[in-house]
Amino acid sequence: MKDRTLALAGMMQGLRLVQSIARSGQADEADLAASLASVFRIDADSVEAVYGSAHLMKTGLEILVGQFQGGGQRDGSLGKMAMTVLSVERQLNARADLLDALQEGIIEAGRQREHFGVTHPTVVARLGEVYANTVSRLSTRVLVQGDPTQLQQEAVVAQVRACLLAAVRSAVLWRQMRGSYWDFLLRRRAMVDAARRWLAT
């Protein structure tokens, strides 16, 4: 459950970045770097290694606690996006052609990352293109609400797509850790406890 919770927190952090960028064109730089870096760690030895450190997913873990505890901390639009991302990941997993194209695109973007850095506009733009050419071709799409002025800017759209790709990466990881929709119905308290343990370490 602990690893599954961290993967879900990674998805939440990616989606919170999507919200922030779509609404204001701004995002926490450390959170952005951590989320985008997870896209490139395809063969990591552990769930925590995918993110570099659980500490780098602090925002996502805090969001997860707030979402599952309810009350004033719950964000309905974020929860809706999260469920859509999980549905998108299931569809993506059934498309070998898109998975191959996704891997090729990430490898190419990884070469650019080595040269420029993970949050450089060139790398972000490439990740955005990868998302548009693979995940966006599925029948289900993640609807992003924000400031229309921001969402008309190419750089903002690229960042949004790159962060959505990071969220999908975490959704893949969650499924690999045997995550299921039952977690949201029956295991919320266990995930809150796991998230708090991660936050305490």
UniProtKB/TrEMBL annotation:
Pfam families: DUF489 (PF04356)
Compartments, record wording: Cytoplasm; Cell membrane
Principal location: cytoplasm
A GO cellular component annotation in the UniProt record: cytoplasm
Membrane topology field: Peripheral membrane protein
Similarity remark: Belongs to the HflD family.
Protein name: High frequency lysogenization protein HflD homolog
Annotated organism of origin: Denitratimonas tolerans
